[in-house]
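Cross-posting from the modeling subforum.

Setting up a comparison between two proteins and wanted a second pair of eyes on the formatting. Protein 1 (sequence, then structure tokens):
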Amino acid sequence: MRISTVSPSEVSALPEIENVRSLRVAIESVLTLLLALLLPLRVVVQAVLRGAAYSVWCGQPIIAMAVNCRAERLLGVRSVSIVTHTYFVTQAFDCDVSRISKSRVFRYLSSWALLFWVLLAAKRVHTYCDGGLLASTTAFEFNPRELFLYRLACLKHVAWTYGADVRTQALTKALGEPNCCTECDAPGKHCICSADKAEKNIARVKRGAVLMASMGDMNEYLPLARHDLHFWPLDLDLPIYEKPPEVIRSNDLLRVVHAPNHRQFKGSRHLIAAVDTLQKEGHAIELVLVERVPNAEAMKIYRTADIVFDQCLVGFHGYFALEAMALGKPVMVFIRKPEYLIDAANCPLINVTPETIADSLRGFLVNRADLALIGKKSRQYVERHYGLAAFAERLKHAYEDAGVKL
């Protein structure tokens, strides 16, 4: 029998936490009422803007969101990306509150000020399913006051997914092994997990959303969302994605590069074990793990790879895989269902499971020429489907189908 205990310090802290939460709710209720009373100003601001109102992208500071924003500009839209913090130093977002101050109080007040600006000057707001500008009192759940104000302002809301905001434990496990929960060390911490919480949260978001979009394994959790947008584009004109030369390193070690942000979700231990097995067999192979490295430096390391390993548990590729493909690198990844992919028949991803990693690598050790061919096809695949223009065209069609004006 497992017995959970609570220390005296934790017990004494509970009332204090509840008091802070109650105070925050009271403050936010007052701020919500204030913004609601000021909403008539929206008519004046929108009239001044004369059709040049903003399309605002906000929420979790995921780089793909900033790239989506730039892609929308290709449609002639006045788009801007806003975040209150970032996971690492980057200039990708148009407005990053944390550049001004790291103070949590400043960020909190700024989020309300920015929300007021959005309510007045925006025609459309893009968020992930777990929130926009305001922090929520419950992890992975959208702040209901922000959603209320969106609806009150008749602001068109487009909701996207990134994974953790919709992934539930029961449904994930039902997909079969391996899966994102297989080696999770803290259920409820990394994803929303609870099916009941997820269902209620999605219902709140869906109530005012004109469009909801998911892709890959995220489609399992949002079966009625739009699944064909594939919204992880790359700005291939950036120097970091410069088209690589065609080089076959036949006499060197086979270099495998892996960049896990969370090893337990990527199946990193299976890759490490496979490489260790091959090294003991006498094969010339090395593994380079890229962790806690600035993006610009990481991209330089990716360029040195012969093959890149994304993950072997989740069942869908990540943004990292697309970046590696843009560099002309073959990518190993576990794809659960071909329908998760765009143009699956011509996708050059190398599908692996924990049990097949070693055999797959063993085959490439024998024939390096295969890697060069796959790498070339990888770059072509990304150019064809994940450039800014390709995503912008998909977004345009989605807007048309949803009756959303540019």
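Protein 2 (same layout):
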Amino acid sequence: MTDRLSTLLHDEAGGIPVPPAPGGVLAAGRREVRRRRTRTALAGAVAAALVAVAATVAVDRWTGGGDAISPADRTAYREQGAWIVDDRLHIAGHTVRIPDAVGMLYTAQGVLVGSLDGDTSQQVVTLVTPDGRTRDLGHLGGVAADPRSPEIVFARSTGDHTWQLVTWDLATDEQRPLGEPFESGRSTSVALGMSDPYVVFLRGQRMLTMDRHTGETGSLPQQDIGLTLDQSFGPAGYLTSSEASPEHVTEWLVRSLPDGRLVGSFPDDGAQAASVSPDGRYLETGSEDVVRVYDVATGARLPLELPAHPTEVGWTPDGDLVAPSADRDTVLVCSPTTGACDDTGTPVGDRVTVVRGSVNSGLNAPTGGP
């Protein structure tokens, strides 16, 4: 694994360092944001975290729990999501140890977690269901997911720098190839995103869309979309700035796929970062020390404000925010529409990893996107 890839993995994992005083966290957030200005190349925007050299799919092997997921666990998962404190994943009241986690993605079957294989330095993708069971999915060369669907798309290596997109229904275990194999330059992985019914992928230096149902491909309507490393594709479309390569972002735009139609524009008050909830309804951005939330469809600013930097918070599958408490003691789950927060009672610990939006890019990224 290259030093650059290692850096991307740890930068994009959505981890929150928790020093003794809040000011230290915000200072760290400011330094991180300055590294993530929108002049970052498009390829880096989509190839954020969960990537691997090959797609080695594991056998069906579950550990822990029974066969059926209870309605209570499913509801708790949708409403509270998942987060990792140090090496412990918290999901629907269950705790699962997953060492060396680098990112997460939501699916309808549970959360996908990417972690580093200590023997090979490749990433292993694990599905953790709402009842705490785990399933090793193996090394996948890029993954895209949607929290509303049990179906994921991953890239399978078919030769030197040649890839085949494959859909995998995690509920039925059915797999089928999607479109034709393609070359991706000299890349050792494929950056993927999903905005149903489209899969977005990098072929050479071009971002393309593929209809998941027909296999038909097309080009993005806006090639130079100026994404930061935190943004990707999701149910709302894609997130971009108003300038092609800005030095300082003043507003964020949400555009639909595949036509690039403007859905809404939202002010950046200095954070230089934003993300959209996995269900596509809400956008969070703000200043260096305050998170503000907006309704994507109406553009209205919502009641919730959090004393944090926007890169410090994550989302649940249902669009609530996951954030450390003001005193950095416990993890909160907060409603954008009411502004109310529920204290989960989970201690923050030394590091918290959250889902930074529908970062549907290859466990390529469970950090930020529309």
